[in-house]
Amino acid sequence: MRRDPASAHQVRIPAWLLFLLATLFGIAAARQHVLFMGMGREGNTVPFVHGLAMRMPFWYLWALAVPLLQWFARRFPLDRMRWLPGAALQVAVAVAFTLALYAAELGVQRLLPQRLFMGDPYPDFAWQFIVGGLSSNLGIYAILLAAVYCADYYARYRERELAASQLQGQLARAQLQALRMQLNPHFLFNAMNSISMLVRGGRNAEAVRMLAGLGDLLRSVLEEERPHEVPLRDELQFLERYLEIEQIRAGRLQVRMEVAPETMDARVPNLILQPIVENAIRHGIARSSTASLVEIGARRENGSLLLSVRDDGPGVPDTGREGVGLRNTRARLAGMYGDAQRLELRNAEEGGAVVTIRLPFLPGEAPREEAVR
After folding, report:
1. Which one, 44, 194, 255, 364, has the greatest CB density within 10 A?
2. 3-class SS at 24?
3. CB 313, CB 282: distance < 8 Å
4. pLDDT tens digits for 311-353?
């Protein structure tokens, strides 16, 4: 499930770590300042406490400012800004931020005992304030902001890796679920019995075709490293092999496909339609002596891909409870597309039940001219 962008990809830096780093940098900067000030002062050393008074407020204030930098970086991510307005915003915020921090630093130093300083650290003129603030703070601002952006991008990369591994697990479960259905003794018994009847009736070509279809079906399910998404035409080819076997097993089964040509190469989750079609046959047609039709449709609508599976059976039961297949499909779609997807089960106006899936339309190759009918 997608999270709020304000809280997604967030790297939290512990306060104690910020304090420790500021202390270490401050001590190092104070030592450097004392050595620099002591150059050329024979017999007149600069006290280390003076270096601490001059440099520690600088680093402690920057440690306090890091959460504000994190908020700004996440509120205005670089990949969502056009370069010219984004650059103007970054420069304006950098100047205002560094000057405000420099003013705070001078204010803190004013509160310290003046005997710690060798003169007044506060500038006499506005231009000295601006030059001093930009020279001492702008570089640190750029480094810290870049670090925040890099940390967030790394967290986003790790989150995508985790999501990919979760999707791989869901795909494996979907494959196992389809395999259990296809290796169901009742399913295999009826398939093999139908093949035997074809052979005894001298319809050898049909028997061979059914055996080949059964082999292709099982090979597709057992194929390793299947992608998360496949072109819709591949998903429909898998369904055709499955439905050929079901049509021989249940002679009254009729299949109708109405797929718009421009959707044939759209990417869809692998093995997303098979459990829904299997539910339509098992819970729709098999429970009614008059039902016989499974209708599969696909069309493009307002930037979305609309998939539908309808049967002409008794419709959705009054309990409204969904089976394991539909629940797993919902969870899988939510994990892949977040709020950009929707799955709906309802009674169809023409009779029977219909499952509708709405997905983002993700084009693949250039669509071919032929449609599935």
Report:
1. 194
2. helix
3. no
4. 988 888 776 667 777 887 888 888 788 889 999 999 988 888 9
| Contact criterion met (CB below 8 Å) for 247 and 360 | no
pLDDT tens track for 250-298: 667 889 999 999 999 999 988 889 888 888 888 888 777 777 889 999 9
The structure tokens listed for 130 are 């601006």
Q: CA torsion 21→26→32→37, rounded to 10°? A: 170
Among 153, 154, 143, 104, smallest CA distance to 21 is for 143
CA-to-CA separations, 333 to 143, 159, 315, 341, 356, in angstroms, rounded: 40, 17, 24, 7, 13
Chain center to CA of 78: 18
Give CA–CA dist 254/291, Å, rounded: 9
Q: Tell whether the torsion through CA atoms of 170, 326, 219 and 359 is positive or negative.
A: negative
What is the distance between the alpha carbons of residues 172 and 271, in angstroms, rounded to a whole number?
10
Q: How many CA atoms lie within 13 A of 246 on its CB side?
A: 24
Other beta carbons less than 10 A from residue 245's beta carbon: 21
Residue 101 CA to residue 145 CA, distance in Å, equals 15
Q: What are phi and psi of 8, to 5 degrees?
A: -75, 155
DSSP state of 99: H
Distance CA 107, CA 84 (A): 35
CB-based contacts of 65, cutoff 8 Å, min separation 6 = 97, 101, 144
Query: What's the distance, Cα to Cα, between the start and end of the chain in Å?
Result: 35
- For residue 53, the tally of other CB atoms under 10 A from its CB is 22
260 with 297: CB under 8 angstroms? no
- Contacting residues for 373 by C-beta, under 8 A, at least 6 apart: 257, 258, 259
E strand spans, 171-253: 229-231
Taking the C-alpha atoms of residue 289 and residue 316, their distance in angstroms, rounded to an integer, is 16
Residue pointed to by tokens 């279809």: 213
The secondary structure of residue 372, as a DSSP letter, is B
Can you say how many angstroms the Cα of residue 106 is from the centroid of all Cα atoms in its chain? 45
